[in-house]
Amino acid sequence: MSDWREKMASWRLPVPDFRVDPGRSAFLIVDMQYMDAHTDHGLGRVFAKVDPDRAAYYFGRLRDTVIPNIRRILDTVRSGRIRVIYLTLGPELPDGSDLSPNFRRRYRTEEDLLGIRVTYPKGTREHGILEEIAPRDGELVVNKTANSGFNASNLDRVLRNLEIDTLIVSGVGTDVCVDTTARDAVDRGYNCIVVDDACATLDQESHDAALLTFAKWFGKVATTRDVIALLTA
N or C: which end of the chain has fewer CB within 10 A? Predict the structure, then answer.
């Protein structure tokens, strides 16, 4: 599959468009945790075992592209006092019983098959956010127990209390928690920008497919450079 931008060039229907007020925007960092964004912890060991080629691509992209770009955007938004909000994924209870039945069933199947723990509750090392992009004082961390930041957390209420109307979304995986959260945000009336080069998933084809669909129907897709220019204009 070619880069999603090539396919967008032939799209003839209107695409989402909106103006961005930095004062009512937030930078949302999705699931950049040790369990799923580090080679030596959690799902990193699972990916390396079941699909080493995709693991090499995914963690290489995180290391070389996604983490540096998230840091660049963080430097920009922090200097401009734009809100930073982190999402994490994991159960609140040690046994994972507060996860949805579908999540529990999938995690237990993976654990039985691979012999590696894949459920990491809040408070464990694996549940924590990567040190390179760790939250600072005054930055919110919202835990969720499902893919979307809106379906299993108080994110919507937090954003409305903060009078946020635009989300700039980064993190992992592009086609799973990032995409699901961004689409749900749009359905709830938020403007949403997904940052192409600050997101990753297990293969380029899935990344491109998620961004193509989002750009057609839901919101904007931009590069880190575009986002920094927009917020500092």
Answer: C
